[in-house]
Amino acid sequence: MGIAPGISDIYILKCLDHDGFSVGMSVDSALSWIADSPSQVDIANLSLGGKGLNLTGTDYMSRQADYAALAGVCVVVAAGNNYQEFNYQDGCVSLPGVAKNVITVGSVNDGSSPNGAFASGADRISYFSNRGPTGDYRVKPDIVAPGSVISAPMAGSVNDYQDQAGTSMAAAHVSGVIAQLFQKFPQMRGKPDMVRAYLMSTAQDLGQGSQDQGAGRIDAFAALADDSGQFINGWFQGVVGDGSGLVPSLAEHFIEVPMDAARLRVFLVWHEQPAGAGASLAVLNNLDLLVEQIPEGDVRVQSSNKYDNVESVVIEPPLPGTYRIQVAATELALGQTVQTYSVAYSIVRGDRYDDVDIELAVPQSRIGIGDTFIVSATLSTTTASTAAIEASISIPQECLIESAALYLSDGTKMAWEYDTPFVYQNELTNLTPGELNVSAGPRRIDWHVRAFASVAYQITVSVRDVRHPEIVASDVILIGDAQPDQVLSSTPVTPNGDNVTDSLQPWCGGDAIPLFLLSGLYISWWTTVRRKRV
To answer: Who has greater pLDDT, 348 or 351?
Structure first.
């Protein structure tokens, strides 16, 4: 069904009332059904939660979610939308998002809707998205995904859509990507620790702090890439013991890093039995991760965190050669003799830093008053991938942007058109063509502009992502009888990362379906009702 046709069944568990509240033990009962039905359910999306500060993940609901993951279900949980409500205080991830075995998802701004949500900047953490750490010092969320102003099917309708914002929407994106992973890599089904490690290793690091972004923004392009070209991805599974001799307490895996590698990310994840109800620490076992170049290489990086069941190593750039990945059972809980684990790695090839090129095209002949002309910016990169790109244009007050269009490298057109263009004049100066990738090819934005008076003007297009300063290209236009020596300089419009006007929404996104289970259906939601595919 959809873009994952081999994943065909969907189950709806209604555990919230019309106002979005649970009744009695309805959510806990739903989680129990999931844990008892691993042969039916591969992915459980929980766009719901209970708010609180410094939660440890040892409450009943979180422990039930952990049991479901241990049964082989990928449990995807929204991190919650209370960051502003808690006066921007860290440690506010909701339950069961604080569970140790689940994939907890925060929200980033999509940036594809030219409105207040866009003004906060594409690929920046949404102002409402809950931040970690948990009450027992674990990193949450695990990953972030677009969750700000997302168009989704409207509950109770067969053909209507509505805009919603919240980590509920972000969690659904992650569940959809997991369905695609199962379509391509069926051997991942029933192995949620492997899926979690793999999604984190292939995520796009936005440079916004692990307790805000987790491992970064989910990157479906990288996760679904073949082991060639810009990405080399892989995973291992294993088991380590307590040193009794039956199972070694140290396991090793080996990978080859090519000459042109820009970064190496390795994530170790293990899922384990829940801690006791109300325990102060959720994680029982302590596994450590070591990545080193052999023989006797110059690179040796270790990760050892006794509180979390995730360890990670990032090397930028790695030297080429053979690397050994070691997983050590430093400490296992009393009475436990073995611990299974998953390790995933992602090697990104190409330039180390984002490199965006702008090819700007404006009319070279004089423009008549009343004429419509096109300003075209073609954007490309030589890196494996960038974060989401923001493209801003400056135009003279004597002109009006009537519409804009984005062209993907395969010719797909996404258009912004309005019946009352004057209302949206300023919004169309800032657009987001999305993430650039050298393998996917360039993207082009066309602004259709109408001239109303004589002016000589230097039109400027500026481009940037969340991690780097803007790159600028400019050229001159002549309208009416304006002369070249009368050129006015332009001031590019730059998105303001602090100007956030999204509306806070509940976890379940208003009347959107609050909880759905996938044995592999991907529900594809367009990101804005104002944008249309042509």
So the answer is: 348
